[in-house]
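Aim 2, interim progress. The first record below pairs a target sequence with its structure tokens.
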Amino acid sequence: MPRGTLRANTKKEKAVIVILAIFILFLFRGFGVCMLKHTIATNELNVVENQLSQYKNAITDLSEEVKSLQTERGVEQSIREKFHVAKPGEKTVIVVAPEEIKKEVENTSVWSKIKSFFIR
């Protein structure tokens, strides 16, 4: 075999390897972009599905409220709750939540103890 043919074959092989490597890099890049788009689409789908379930729950709640307002008792209950009214002769009771008890930090100095002894 002549020497020149061996070099030509290795140069061609190197060129083919470089071209294949570039092609493989483009394939991996394309795969990465597709995976990124898939992840984004999946996240958006989850968000939309959550919103859909919230809207379905809201529709159910509102339809129940509409059904209750179609009855005389439901209308009366709604008026009583919103406007705090009662029929003549009825008494209303309003329950007020107790205020939060504030705890003060006790002073531990001798002077504050003497002062608190005489103030009580």
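The second target in this work package is listed in the same format:
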Amino acid sequence: MPERRSDTSVVVPDPRERPTLTVKEAAALLGISLHGAYDAAHRGELPVIWIGRRMLVPTAGLMAMVGLDDPWTPSSGNAL
């Protein structure tokens, strides 16, 4: 699960270390329900990669979707 900070922001993992997230993790980062995240994925509103029957959310795609596609520092995370 994404790391939480005391100010209730959620840290997005470095996409080079964690290239994909589960739909559950993406939902938590976006502050939406798991059902809402799956619905958004099926509508094409949430970027996903299918591997067999498993649906994964590309970390970089999620970051770009919410405007966090700035240069990345390896040891720090971007917060939502």
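Helices lie at 23-30, 34-43, 59-65. This observation will shape the mutagenesis plan for the next reporting period.
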